[in-house]
Design brief:
Layout (H helix, E strand, L loop, with lengths): L1 H15 L3 E2 L21 H13 L5 H16 L4 H19 L10 E14 L2 E8 L17 E9 L6 E20 L2 E18 L4 H6 L9
Helix pairs in contact: 2-3
Length: 224
């Protein structure tokens, strides 16, 4: 009984509390990673390095000879293949750590932020689950943003979106929750890594009418 009373008091406090305004840049904390410098290569050299990566997994003598030939050709052009691929691997590891760095200070907080919702699950004409992201165009015919710039948004009450990506204000409790799921989008299923989950208490249009939506961009503090 005491626990029930405590839970009711918590939910009551949340419903009357002022939400904490959160910027997208705050959701991507600085990891203090060292900058990895990639070798300066031409487009042709990039294509040759890509062939090296593909051929490295092949076992036939002909492919091994081709690999040696490409490696020698790049060496003549001043490109150390082993060093270039090692730098590429290190760069990708650093970028992944940056993308998946989450900010625990918002965990469990009642927050408010704006963004674009991409519906992923419907109940009738209303969407109940979304991806919430800081800018339009993400995840549609292009790779998703970094994980710390993708929020898995749940709203059982449902919200009717006017188009595939729709600008909104959202209020709710946010949690740090790094997960990768196959998400159904308009152009098919794709794996998306989400850094946060947010149970929305309220979703509202960013603009009051469609005229504003057509003539005004959504402003964010997110820095590219």
């Amino acid at each position: 009984m005491k626990r029930l009373v405590w839970l009711m008091s918590v939910f009551s406090a949340l419903s009357f509390a002022e939400p904490l305004a959160v910027s997208w840049s705050a959701l991507a904390p600085d990891t203090n990673e060292k900058t990895v410098t990639l070798p300066d290569v031409t487009e042709q050299q990039k294509r040759l390095l890509a062939q090296v990566i593909l051929l490295s997994d092949q076992a036939s003598n002909a492919e091994k000879e081709k690999l040696q030939s490409i490696t020698a050709e790049l060496a003549e052009q001043g490109i150390d293949v082993a060093a270039a691929l090692a730098a590429r691997t290190q760069y990708m590891q650093v970028e992944q750590r940056k993308a998946e760095a989450l900010n625990p200070q918002f965990n469990g907080r009642f927050v408010r932020l704006s963004g674009f919702v991409v519906p992923t699950k419907f109940n009738g004409v209303k969407a109940t689950e979304f991806l919430l992201m800081p800018y339009a165009g993400a995840c549609i015919h292009m790779p998703p943003p970094p994980a710390n710039q993708v929020i898995k948004l749940s709203y059982p009450e449902g919200f009717e979106v006017q188009n595939v990506q729709y600008p909104v204000w959202v209020e709710g409790v946010i949690e740090t929750q790094l997960v990768t799921e196959n998400v159904q989008l308009v152009d098919g299923k794709m794996p998306v890594t989400m850094g946060y989950a947010l149970n929305a208490q309220q979703i509202e249009r960013y603009y009051h009418n469609d005229t504003e939506l057509m003539v005004k961009p959504v402003e964010h503090s997110h820095q590219h």
